[in-house]
Design brief:
Two copies of one chain form a homodimer. Chain A is α+β, with helices and mostly antiparallel strands. Among the domains of chain A are: about 100 residues, Sandwich (Immunoglobulin-like); about 110 residues, no CATH class. At the A-B interface, α12, β14 and β20 of A face α11, β14 and β20 of B.
């Protein structure tokens, strides 16, 4: 196998210093991780008990009782372990580390003699091991446990959980695989694909990589193995939970449109990208590009949300992007971030980083309240609480964030993303550093065996200025590639105060190849003028409407600022939009602009048309991801235009 | 009880001569009634067997086997009997009459010794008689059988079925009623209320009227009796099937908004109106007016469709009228016609007749294909087949009419309405004749013991001219009240060629009080200029949109005439609309007008806004109820305006 050319940095080398993100990450550390630990131990007074730790105790023979929770309840423990491990990197915490060690010891005890590790099938249905791979989530839970093991190893150097998951995977390889006598199958919920590549990365055991490749290459071969399973659960009961729900409707290498459950889909695509990273397989790369094009140019909300139907939590059809009944699961946007990150490792294109950034700042952050204590599972782009709370076809949408979920996949997913955010800022390819995300940080690089530190000071995207300073003992020949987002027309670039010609490569990166000296300082300034955005005319729900975007930040109107009946408001796209810096939220300006509101002058339901009476108004917009933090009310991203 | 002042004419006295309606009625006679007879006897090759006649044979002890079909399968037989009876009035048919007699004989044999008559509970769950009144449909089926009995008696003078239903109702009155020892309850699905009044009308047995009044007055008293039932079926499993689904959430006399299942609601309101007709109860009358206002000014589609959610087939919230996921069941519009008819019997107001006419021409007729062979259960106002056929939240909507339904309530309901259409044209109050619907007909009246015939020749509403000629041996003092629809500004009125001053009463009826002579001819001409209609600004789905209406006929655009992506079309409401009389469908002109279509110039999903490129177009609209007769394609009633 060829050596990987592009590398992701070690999280330990990257310190996030960004005021905004540090705040979010600290929330994960201070609020989410302790809160979820309590949740996993059923210590949250008004929440449904998780039972997740208890399940491990029962499986370990340390406690009596029955398994409780979802079939994938184990994954909550795994995701918590992963997030807590990342957190340890920046915030060493002996007590937390000891807790993790104890959980790992418990997991070890719950592991069966043959290596099997899954509390649901150990405790509740031991006779059904591997009988319901399409819906049983065994491989999914294994994947999350592997990711936790890798994270804890990277954080502490301890191999305790690595050993457990290696034993488990080695056992799995005696059951599942291409060889005769084994089950030829693939995960119902992809996740282990990318996890196995991570396990390969830390163990250098080629067999783990090969198992991942097998899952990808086996996937969707017809007739699908899932059709043969007798215990299909929800499967195939209706078309929305059919084979395409699992991306198993046709051989994966023939799939060029994103189908089915959105989280499954993007986790899978991230897994394929991991395979391509190491194999440079051109066919898979071209296919990933087609899938990327399909998702981001036909099936993605402007917020980076994906999945436009609640039933099946899934992709539907090109341009079918209803705002009020969107699914746009927080986890799906997180999965899109995972996928984009891996696409950047294959090839640095600003499009990948733009989407990553858009999903991160909008579709992911909207999943968590500003105080880090409440969550959205579903992230609609339009809410009228009376309808959202009433209509049956809105039943999957909440009009307010809630404290926790029976199916609690999203909060710990936000936590593990936030606590590992450093992984998304850079990639490096020999002496070239690709700078994807502008986030205040201080990072150690090794270029031709020399150390160099890049320190970035910025409040981007609240403001447009990014300052990057090099610290190096010796002069270093290095190419810096700074992403020019597609929305930015002409950034200005200075080095040590001197204006530079902006040279942009094919991938959309500002390229600076030179010898860098200590204290060399780059000042990159983006024009953050708010823009009015329209969508493809085939998007029925957005026709005649516009959205407001400033840099990567999508804005929305809330009832709190604009009154109710937001559909009565029309924005004037020709008049300038003003940044209200005295109305900042976490550094981000509110935006105001001109528009009109239709005045209701009588109560007749249907009447002969006459020009509506219009009142001039000034509207106020706030960043979409910050909506719903000031009580219940209407919200809309897409607004009618005059 | 006071005598009823306003009377509905005897169907035998009214001959429908209208070319358009005769065609529709003949379809009912020639197609629906024979087809459904075959369906009831499981003789339709590719349709799910109805089993309805077979159920009666089993209940009668004439056949072996199990009950099959819906719990309310008996009502299909009853509605067929009712429609077939009306049909006999205009088209005597010995063979059909004999068939009906045989069915009635069979029903008589299926009736139990105690008078009970319901094949489901007789054959399948005899121990559960009256145990599930909220969902068991026993009283509903009884109601339809009563209506059939009344219709057959009116058509033939035969009392065979009247005797059966009287025995049944007399038995019911031993089980249910206000007296101690009986069940204090009311129907889960209203229908028997209005049926009992019809039974009272032909039998003059006050007790039947009183039972109806009891059902109305008992309804919704809290705690609801439905909560006590153990076998609740669907009931109370979610909020959309709760007590309000049955209009049982509060005492009926406190209900002022239309809630729950739309068909249930309007059948019930029609039943209340029947009570008011005889009791002149002012409180109930005021309440009906409030309910009418709520339904028609806050919860009704422009087509006269009601029920804006598939789940629960129900009313939702004021102004919540989504076009593509509408329910707008054909039966609900028929129920609205029933209710409006009875409101007109209480008080002649053009608003009642306008809504009746609107529902009839749009929401009801849309339920049947032009050839009478295919049906819509659900009547959406916007269809894009790819979405309608795909999305889960559109699962209740069909993008094309279908041959029959497992739950076949709508087709026979259309049939019984069409074959009794004469009942909706006039009411009479001593020497005043109220003329509600302009439909070609020839009708015998008795005014002060003198016969007078009014013959109406018209192709209204295809054209605006109505000619009414009196035929009378002697001069007759009579007041003619001709409805002036609210959409008509200034009709012209001539009598014997001489222009008359148009005098309009408080109810919106053109009033002509005079001595009428043989051959006196009224010529009433309405301006049928097509109008552009807008809806209340709180209707989110219609904001910025307009509809086209000509007289009572709502128009729509179809893909067949205008290409797909109808949401890309904007209508110019300021430019005139042209009637295309060379493009008539059943006499109705197509309409054309000017507009624009947004041209798609690139494939980017989200882009910086610029003025869209617009192509001038000429759009073509056809009557809404005629849509979907030329193959599958998009349809929209509400269109964006420039």
């Amino acid at each position: 196998m060829k050596a990987l050319k592009t590398k992701t940095l070690n999280l330990k080398d990257i310190e996030i210093t960004d005021e905004f993100w540090k705040g979010r990450i600290d929330l994960a550390k201070d609020i989410i991780i302790p809160y979820q630990w309590d949740a996993l131990n059923d210590q949250i007074p008004d929440a449904a008990p998780s039972h997740a730790i208890k399940n491990f105790e029962i499986a370990a023979g340390l406690s009596d009782g029955e398994f409780k929770g979802m079939v994938f309840q184990d994954s909550d423990v795994a995701k918590w372990l992963e997030a807590a491990s990342y957190s340890l990197i920046y915030h060493p915490d002996k007590e937390l580390e000891q807790t993790i060690d104890e959980v790992i010891e418990l997991i070890g005890k719950a592991q069966q003699d043959d290596g099997y590790l899954n509390t649901y099938f150990t405790v509740k249905e031991p006779e059904k091991r591997w009988a319901d791979i399409s819906h049983g989530h065994e491989l999914y839970c294994a994947g999350h446990m592997i990711e936790a093991a890798v994270a804890y190893y990277n954080a502490t150097g301890k191999k305790s959980l690595i050993d457990i998951v290696c034993r488990y995977v080695d056992y799995i390889m005696t059951i599942i695989g291409p060889e005769q006598g084994k089950i030829q199958t693939y995960p119902g919920h992809p996740e282990i694909e990318l996890a196995l590549v991570r396990l390969y990365e830390v163990t250098q055991e080629q067999r783990y990589f090969e198992l991942s490749r097998y899952f990808v290459e086996e996937r969707g071969n017809q007739p699908s193995v899932f059709l043969e399973e007798e215990t299909l659960g929800l499967g195939h009961q209706d078309k929305w939970f059919g084979l395409d729900y699992h991306q198993a409707h046709q051989p994966l290498n023939e799939q060029t449109t994103a189908e089915g459950h959105a989280v499954r889909a993007v986790y899978l695509y991230a897994g394929i990208a991991d395979i391509v990273k190491y194999t440079q397989n051109k066919k898979w790369k071209i296919q990933l590009e087609k899938l990327w094009e399909n998702v981001t140019q036909k099936r993605m909300y402007i917020t980076g949300g994906i999945g436009s139907q609640g039933h099946g939590e899934r992709f539907t059809l090109d341009y079918d992007l209803p705002n009020n009944v969107a699914y746009a699961e927080t986890c799906a946007s997180i999965g899109l971030v995972f996928w984009a990150q891996r696409m950047l490792q294959i090839e640095a294109k600003n499009d990948y980083a733009d989407v990553l950034e858009k999903a991160l700042y909008n579709g992911v952050l909207s999943g968590m309240s500003l105080d880090g204590k409440k969550y959205f599972y579903v992230n609609p782009l339009e809410v009228a609480p009376e309808l959202t709370d009433y209509r049956h076809d809105h039943v999957h949408v909440e009009s307010e964030r809630v404290g926790w979920f029976g199916c609690a996949c999203c909060p710990p997913n936000v936590a593990r993303l936030l606590t590992s955010l450093g992984n998304y800022i850079y990639t490096q390819k020999s002496d070239t550093i690709y700078h994807h995300l502008y986030i205040g940080n201080k990072t150690n690089f090794t270029i031709n065996k020399q150390n160099i530190v890049l320190q970035q000071k910025t409040t981007y995207p609240a403001t447009g200025e990014v300052r990057i300073t090099c610290f190096t003992e010796n002069e270093v020949q290095m190419t810096l590639k700074l992403r020019k987002p597609k929305w930015s027309n002409s950034p200005s670039l200075k080095v040590n105060g001197e204006l530079q010609e902006v040279v942009i490569d094919n991938g959309g990166y500002i390229t600076m190849e030179r010898k860098w000296r200590d204290n060399d300082t780059i000042c990159l300034t983006f024009d953050m003028t708010p823009k009015v955005i329209s969508s493809h005319p085939k998007v029925r729900e957005n026709v005649g409407k516009v959205a407001i975007q400033r840099g990567p930040i999508v804005y929305c109107l809330e009832e709190k600022d604009n009154g109710g009946q937001l559909h009565s408001i029309c924005i004037n796209p020709k008049l300038p939009i003003t940044e209200e810096n005295d109305l900042q939220i976490l550094g981000f300006p509110a935006l105001t602009g001109s528009g009109v509101r239709e005045v209701n002058d009588n109560d007749t339901l249907y009447r002969e048309y006459r020009e509506p009476e219009l009142k001039q108004i000034k509207w106020k917009a706030i960043p979409y991801s910050f909506w719903g933090n000031r009580g219940k009310g209407e919200m809309a991203v897409w607004l009618r235009k005059i």
